Amino acid sequence: MADKDDPGVAPGALDERALLRALEALHRTRHETLLYGSVDALRTHSSRMTALEGEYLRRHPERSPSPGRTRAGARARVP
């Protein structure tokens, strides 16, 4: 993770493959950052993750969630 003075490559400048790789890396390291990172590290991680996720959503406004990942789908699974 880049330090707070170097936020990394702007999400809009990343090609699709690089954007997905960056998101995968952040999601993979999220739990350890939450448990063991400093407050600054968690803040930086959160900020970068929000920026990258926002860029993904901007590029893919038509994406449709899996029915099982919606509130109605989750309720349908409850016995």
Descriptive tags:
79 residues; mainly alpha; 0% strand; flat
Helix content: 55-70%
Describe the global form.
flat
Largest beta sheet, briefly? Answer: none
Q: Structural class from helices and strands?
A: mainly alpha
Mean pLDDT level: 89
Low-confidence stretches: none
Query: What is the CA-CA span between the terminal residues?
Result: 42 Å
- Strand and helix order: HHH
**What radius of gyration results from the CA coordinates?**
15 Å
The count of DSSP E runs of length 2 or more, i.e. the number of strands, is 0
Strand percentage: under 5%
Number of helices: 3
Describe this structure in words.
There is one protein chain. The chain has 79 residues and is mainly α. The chain has a domain at 11-63. Helices cover 62% and strands 0% of the residues. It has 3 helices and no strands. This is DUF6158 family protein.
Question: TL;DR?
Answer:
The chain is mainly α and about 80 residues long.
Set down the secondary structure blueprint.
Layout: H1 16-36, H2 39-59, H3 71-77
Helix pairs in contact: 1-2
